[in-house]
Amino acid sequence: MAKGILHYEVGEQVDIHLLVKSSTKGIASNGKAFLTLFLQDQSGEIEAKLWDVNQGDETIYGAQNIVKIFGDIHHYRGRNQLKIRNIRPANKEEEVNISDFLETAPLDKEEMNDKITQYIFEMKNPNIQRITRHLLKKHGAEFMEYPAATRNHHEFVSGLAYHVVSMLDLAKAIASLYPSLDTDLLYSGVILHDLGKVIELSGPISTTYTVEGNLIGHISIMVNEIAKAAEHLHIEGEEVVILQHLVLSHHGKAEWGSPKPPMIKEAEILHYIDNLDAKMNMLDRALERVKPGEFSERIFALENRNFYKPLFLK
Amino acid sequence: MAKGILHYEVGEQVDIHLLVKSSTKGIASNGKAFLTLFLQDQSGEIEAKLWDVNQGDETIYGAQNIVKIFGDIHHYRGRNQLKIRNIRPANKEEEVNISDFLETAPLDKEEMNDKITQYIFEMKNPNIQRITRHLLKKHGAEFMEYPAATRNHHEFVSGLAYHVVSMLDLAKAIASLYPSLDTDLLYSGVILHDLGKVIELSGPISTTYTVEGNLIGHISIMVNEIAKAAEHLHIEGEEVVILQHLVLSHHGKAEWGSPKPPMIKEAEILHYIDNLDAKMNMLDRALERVKPGEFSERIFALENRNFYKPLFLK
Amino acid sequence: MAKGILHYEVGEQVDIHLLVKSSTKGIASNGKAFLTLFLQDQSGEIEAKLWDVNQGDETIYGAQNIVKIFGDIHHYRGRNQLKIRNIRPANKEEEVNISDFLETAPLDKEEMNDKITQYIFEMKNPNIQRITRHLLKKHGAEFMEYPAATRNHHEFVSGLAYHVVSMLDLAKAIASLYPSLDTDLLYSGVILHDLGKVIELSGPISTTYTVEGNLIGHISIMVNEIAKAAEHLHIEGEEVVILQHLVLSHHGKAEWGSPKPPMIKEAEILHYIDNLDAKMNMLDRALERVKPGEFSERIFALENRNFYKPLFLK
Amino acid sequence: MAKGILHYEVGEQVDIHLLVKSSTKGIASNGKAFLTLFLQDQSGEIEAKLWDVNQGDETIYGAQNIVKIFGDIHHYRGRNQLKIRNIRPANKEEEVNISDFLETAPLDKEEMNDKITQYIFEMKNPNIQRITRHLLKKHGAEFMEYPAATRNHHEFVSGLAYHVVSMLDLAKAIASLYPSLDTDLLYSGVILHDLGKVIELSGPISTTYTVEGNLIGHISIMVNEIAKAAEHLHIEGEEVVILQHLVLSHHGKAEWGSPKPPMIKEAEILHYIDNLDAKMNMLDRALERVKPGEFSERIFALENRNFYKPLFLK
Amino acid sequence: MAKGILHYEVGEQVDIHLLVKSSTKGIASNGKAFLTLFLQDQSGEIEAKLWDVNQGDETIYGAQNIVKIFGDIHHYRGRNQLKIRNIRPANKEEEVNISDFLETAPLDKEEMNDKITQYIFEMKNPNIQRITRHLLKKHGAEFMEYPAATRNHHEFVSGLAYHVVSMLDLAKAIASLYPSLDTDLLYSGVILHDLGKVIELSGPISTTYTVEGNLIGHISIMVNEIAKAAEHLHIEGEEVVILQHLVLSHHGKAEWGSPKPPMIKEAEILHYIDNLDAKMNMLDRALERVKPGEFSERIFALENRNFYKPLFLK
Amino acid sequence: MAKGILHYEVGEQVDIHLLVKSSTKGIASNGKAFLTLFLQDQSGEIEAKLWDVNQGDETIYGAQNIVKIFGDIHHYRGRNQLKIRNIRPANKEEEVNISDFLETAPLDKEEMNDKITQYIFEMKNPNIQRITRHLLKKHGAEFMEYPAATRNHHEFVSGLAYHVVSMLDLAKAIASLYPSLDTDLLYSGVILHDLGKVIELSGPISTTYTVEGNLIGHISIMVNEIAKAAEHLHIEGEEVVILQHLVLSHHGKAEWGSPKPPMIKEAEILHYIDNLDAKMNMLDRALERVKPGEFSERIFALENRNFYKPLFLK
């Protein structure tokens, strides 16, 4: 398989297919139009400028088109840029598909689905189990495709499901060390906590926020869904309120979007598990691109810190 | 009618019936039990100590009993206290009822109900009108009885309905000056914004928070109720999301319990109307007890400020 | 009348007179000078670049000149820009006046003056009335011309007076619902609260801050003016302190520039009325440019939120 | 002279005259009235309880009376208390005066007055000199008597003048090391910065805030005074604005009560000099009562820190 | 073994030995001295008042004495209190030891020591291993005895070692799920992070802060110790700086006492592991005392939240 | 000597040698490379663009080369820029040295060294004196060369020593007015407080942070150095802890990088002296470039304020 765009060094020549992730028109100081392109493959994305474009170019090189590019890598303001020497649309015979250019979770869907099904199977409280199973079934197709966010962490195809699977394993490991934790609540909380994102976000490609996502948010969306599921399944009892609370409070603080802070033990731990998995994902991805003895780029969602890779770590 | 307990001056003698609002046992330094009573009538409440009590006294002078007290008013740490010289339970022949001792909204229920019905009648958007009417009908009985809060503002019988009626009049006055405001959204937002309190709070007397109130809160409770109402009435369309947003955002900021800030114009104004009416209620009640040239007590919900009543205002 | 510059669509041709609001020289990457122009008419303002200018151009196309432009509208970084194809100074015969290009309050000065005079006439406390009338007379000419701010809200000719008139009507409506409010204090507070802006700001066109505005600020300037007015009118008594307090505290909190928070009831409400009118002005102006189903630009003075215009509102 | 009340050890007997600083009535658990007295002499103040008092006692032992007390020192909740065994009003023959019991600045008034006069004499800018001299003359009598605050620092008779004299010496020392500082502005800023306290506070004994102090504050009061002084002396020019700015900004930040932060160099340094002298005063007074190897009480105005006196400092 | 003092119900009679944890003298309103005692056994502590004490009693019932008490349990201001009917010092024949009354970690020292030794044995980097082993040996005796804090979490004998052992197991479980984590750094960071507490705190009983603890703090103390250990062992290289950074940053933010935030991946995760284990300890201890359907007391170190124990959890 | 680059007016011609401080490559909109140069002499630095460069140019005009430039001064976005008309490397015969272009402290090293030696000589406590002398000797060479920071204040050759000398003089002046201050602690605190910067920073030219500087910081570095010095000199006793505390706390608050706030009097004053000297340095340098009646640029480290130079100050 071709080398990913992120693995080219400054000065290297590039001659590969890439997917146009976004394309924005600007006017240069000479009065002519140009396009700022973000081009991606599975390794990540890179910026490029296309100068002196006409109206046709705007369409041909718009978002979600695949292009063939010849050029080389420059360094500009602390980031790599791709200098385009030649560009053309991919043609039919080249047999390239959008999915070949999208970053995807490292586990495949069946495997993830099996793991989650197994965790649901292990639940002992029938109310919690039925609500969880019902909601996962209702939104399962999108759940398996969506990213966990538009940026920051798990922002790739199936990122939502992958985040949930990692959190389930983490929940199991922690609960085995602290046996006072209720695994039904932890597992159900993990599975449902971000499920509202399938309504908050537009989908797995060029992800944006929906109107409902902007005005209500994935937390309140899922709290509503739990209420409706309970009504539909004729489930009454404190489990409904507790599951709603787990989802409601998983951001940890009002300032971070949770109208109530965690007030049951498993809600507090769920918040921690969510954070820990998201941070590991961000740290691994940032440090992957860094050599020992160097600092990473600043990571916005980690208070804009940059992280150092020690020399003695291989 | 008898003079209210709050209108007695320091040094005056008291010989009236009062309702025990709360009764807490303590142990004095001489080892004997005593009760700290909060006694109320419609004018407000006052603290009193009952010394040297036995187990029977704890029952007889427990919360929600009516008592006859002879005593006088002292000043202690900046507040009036009632020094009990004689106390006994009210007897049957005295024909006193709990409701005679509870502070109640200055408008009666029929009048408030008529006003609210009229505002709903004026709505033009049928989706908004039907959801509002459905939810008010579903929770109408409690809505007419409940206070708007456990303390700070409108913390009296029917305080919730009274707060809503005042806000509706204010909404109408403001909308007539700023005609770009949509009155359907404003009126519906006003009526629904705090309606979740009938589930969040325990009831009109000795009000506390329910488990659901603590873990979910009145905002999310009502957002759920709107979702269920829309499903039940087969209403789809943006009105549902917008009404949910109005309720969700009415505290104005994440730190104040709204997971989303106001993002439509009427939501922003609803937040203002809610605040303005709550503040007027707090200010009027605090300044009522103050003479020109004096400062009020510090008002916790107004950043602990104390307010001055100018000398030249009668 | 000609179509306002803000009402042209992207791609449309433009051939109109505009006023140069500001003109800033830069050096392009080819080493030649260019001007960044902000051009305005009563509908608003638009940015344009004028390339390859010489020293004479800097003068001819400097601020407060009127120009005739032929060009078209582009979209650049989320905002419209005017691409200049031809530009020349307006000539005498075209009979264009600066005032034709300035955005102005929707009420004319006489009407606003009459309304304010009427409100002063309704005051019952002679001290309050005389101080208010004296200061309005002293600064009346500028008061009728100045904007209420350099940006954010009411930033147009006579914006200050228009803001005051709207607030007076709002004060009257609110006071009629909450009769414990003293209208003398409210009306005087409204009229005086921002009057110091006639010293803080440079004037109605290309408004900037004066040295006194920067170092002292309109709040303290007006508190001084009230002190001097009282001395001049031989008025003593608490009214002077209270009026100073109303002005001093109208920003509500120390962090927002008020050295004392509101500590009388009318000061608290004045702060609310000021905010409500400013926000309505900002919201109306932002949403005017937006179609149903869209979000407005982010509004800096509203915590950088963007606002949604629901689909079902016409 | 008698040993000061603060210098008695726990367990020691006391038999001295003290001034009643404040006297507050309470009701004990046995139903009888008692007084909480704060008693002072020049060394400081101590709390005492007087049990079983009658109405006459309230008058005899009210604030600003001198009493003769026999008792002993106890330790209670981290502070010393005076246990009263015998108390009586001082009698005529004992020839005790209130001023003998008040803490006073360590310099006498003439000395302080001479120093300040000398600093004014050294000013070179006539506008600054005349305004400073005029305002000091106008408020000089109170200035020489008032404390600098009700608590925290320089809260003793003539504390205001003493604080100013210390700051003037500090200003001179700093200006000699940083010759770009303008001494006229520094000296005038020092003299005027807190002069508004003679209107903000009630006087040198049992100091409280006046209504004007509460609603306007000493900063705005003095800014007004400078405006009136300039008008009276027919002084125009930037000196007036700059002096107002020095006073206005001397608390350093909006949150600390300055509507504008320092925006001229001498204003920034004035803020520092004010802080440094206030902190030295607080630290010296707190550490005076502490032995090497101990921590002081927590000092509220120093972020509630407690300070350690190293063992190796004598 | 006798029932622990925390397991008595309100109204029950008590006739047991207890250890005096602290004893503070006060003066009652009748002028007589009393003692406020905190009495403890391994189940926890309870408050009691001892009235009318003489000087001998202060010594006999001072801290770290064992007493025999007959009395009963009362409820006072939301907490249980022990009402003393009879109290006497324990006598020799009763064979009671202080250690029988102290709460201790649930694992014994040998077991904890073995586990930690095993983790050190597993380290692969010799520099990290040697520094860790050296410092643990140097401070091992205190490390095995000290609590992890004076209050909030693991505030019992050997709490520090127990906290470390739990964190090591957690670190191992997490590292097995995220294999990019370096276990040498994690294990060493866990073992050293709080080791400075053996200098910061006074010891395992009646724990207070030392002067060095107050002025320098356990974080900087241990950073110094690492520097000295490296010098002593002649170790140079980045491992020294990285270990210092792990300790330095483990509070996560400047506001929480870390002069640098975590800037290597294992430092970030160490902070999380520390928090997670501390919170589990606090939550388990708070919820142990609560029945299903109830809320716990407010937990200060968890932002003063109280936690709910769901009804459906046994 | 030649006129400094900062003293040229807009429009003036320039024909001088300058040192390249930094050189960053960019790609212009025409696809050609250009360099953004920061050029400096002792008066300060100026930006310039060098268009159409080839690979050789990048080396010739890289950082730390001296160049001869002919060009003129433009004004661009509120700052001066140097427009290059001709540029060439300096040649051997021109006898220019890097040190001629670096801003340097206004005192020479010998003079500064003598002053500091004298202050150490005046110390009376032998432990404090020996530790101070030892550490200054150990790091003396770098101490005399390093800047005090990479930007904001004293960011020039020998800036660290110059900052220390100014602070020593200030400490002496303040201690003479407040004789309770211990000059040994003050002088030692001043000398040691920033000495860790010789390890935190890379050196006097093109200063950056070292890895140890980033991960540990100059405060903790110097605390370690004091610990090691004490061990080496066999000094025990509270002086060691107190000196560590002085360094540790000199940033004043946790948020500003001090893990402990000042808790001894001299630590509090050291923090003040440090601030005062840094601010005077920033203010003098910012106002130097401003004419009376103008505002300075915004100063980032002074909360982004801009400062006004009054008209009446020459």
Topology, element by element:
The structure is a homohexamer of 314-residue chains.
Chain A: E1 13-27, E2 33-41, E3 44-50, H1 55-60, E4 66-76, E5 79-89, H2 109-121, H3 126-138, H4 140-145, H5 159-177, H6 183-192, H7 197-200, H8 211-215, H9 217-232, H10 238-248, H11 265-288
Parallel strand pairs in A: 3-5
Antiparallel strand pairs in A: 1-2, 1-4, 2-3, 4-5
Helix pairs in contact in A: 2-5, 3-6, 5-6, 5-11, 6-10, 6-11, 9-10
What brief labels describe this structure?
homohexamer, 314 residues, alpha+beta, five-stranded mixed beta barrel, 11 helices, HD/PDEase_dom (chains A, B, C, D, E, F), exonuclease (chains A, B, C, D, E, F), 3'-5'_exoribonuclease_YhaM (chains A, B, C, D, E, F), nuclease (chains A, B, C, D, E, F)
